[in-house]
Amino acid sequence: MASARPIAPAQGGSFNLEGYLTERRELVEVSLKEMLARQTIPVARLAEAIRYSLLAGGKRLRPILTLAACDAVGGDREAVLPLACAVEMVHTYSMIHDDLPCMDDDDLRRGRPTNHKVFGEAIATLAGDALLTDAFFVLAESAAYKIPPETVLATVADLAEAAGSGGMVGGQAMDILGEGQKAELVVLERLHRLKTGALFRLAVVGGARLGGASASQLAAFDEYARAFGLAFQIADDLLDVEGSSAEIGKRTGKDQSRGKATYPRLLGVPRSRQTALALARQARDALAAFDARAEPLRALATYAVERKR
Fold first, then answer.
1. Cβ(45)–Cβ(101) under 8 Å?
2. Which residue segment(s) compose the domain that 259 sits in?
């Protein structure tokens, strides 16, 4: 797996988030390419579809969170790169499937045509299936770094829970079945925590666990991740209302057109923004007991609600 250089602080001693994101994104990109190079995919068209979406760039926020959580507890960054890749593979699978005509029916993702627009619905569906399944094989490679088998097994179980019917799939089902219906705030929060928050929680808690975190540290990371995931999704809801397709790289205004329940629709824009900011503060506060090694996670909580795409 690829290795990374330490990040220098910005002038004046403040944390250089932009530099951190750039360096960690490059590390993730290299690791994903190395992982794909080790795979044997017998159908060239399927391999092309997988690469088209997995190597399409993007924020790489979830694997970056995995690396940051590991760093915060002084863990071996190399040992969590398999999980970082697996998390991004599951995230990419979810986007391919979300974009399908039977789901959200989107034509644009990360500024270019969605997978099914290029490869057809059948191959796009199979590319998503392959990414989801292969993610577990990639995560199992963590065992090569002398991580206790029970720790790897617990992380595998968490990945399955985050991606399955009790996580992303369940949240997507709630989202589809709730279109055009008025949702209570408590239901909307649960939807977001499943559809979006579950994978964020896996990224953070899994990275910390594989990095050797104690039980009390894992509890703090869990609190951080739950607040972070909901804050991120509320910010996404706001971007769908206020952002532009050119800036974000995907169609905006679709939530309102499909009658989806969102925070701006239920609370209005100002209150939704206040809620997101409060959750970002909650995430940062959860890390009060950690030293400067957790500064990237604190900065990322702020970034989650202040980003423009």
1. no
2. 17-306
Q: Kindly tell me if the per-residue pLDDT of 12 is higher than 90.
A: no
9 found inside a domain: no
Token readout for 160 is 């399955």
Compare 145 and 243 and report the one with higher pLDDT.
145
- What is residue 6's predicted lDDT score, i.e. its pLDDT? 43
CA–CA distances in Å: residue 295 to residues 65, 74, 179, 289? 12, 13, 39, 12
The domain spanning residue 93 has which CATH number? 1.10.600.10
Reference 199, options 304, 106, 66, 13; nearest CA is 66
Is the residue at 25 inside a domain? yes
Question: Please, what is the angle between helix 61-72 and helix 77-98, to 10°?
Answer: 160
Residue 114's SS3 state is coil
Cα(251)–Cα(249) distance, integer angstroms: 7
Amino acid identity at 138: V
Provide the token pair at 110.
């990360």
In a domain, 24, yes or no: yes
What is the pLDDT at residue 309? 76
Dump pLDDT digits (tens) for 95-122. Answer: 999 999 999 899 999 889 999 999 999 9
* Higher pLDDT among residues 271 and 111, named by residue: 271
Report how far apart the first and last C-alpha atoms of the chain are (Å, whole number).
29
Q: Which residues contact 278 (CB under 8 A, 6 or more apart)?
A: none
Distance (Å, whole) CA 280 – CA 221:
13
pTM of the predicted model, to two decimals? 0.91
Please state the domain count of the chain. 1
Residue 193 has pLDDT above 60, yes or no: yes
How many other C-beta atoms can be found within 10 angstroms of the C-beta atom of residue 18?
Answer: 11
Q: CB–CB of 155/209 below 8 Å?
A: yes
The answer to the question of residue 7 being in a domain is: no
Whole-angstrom distance, CA of residue 160 vs CA of residue 146: 22
CA distance 157 to 173: 21
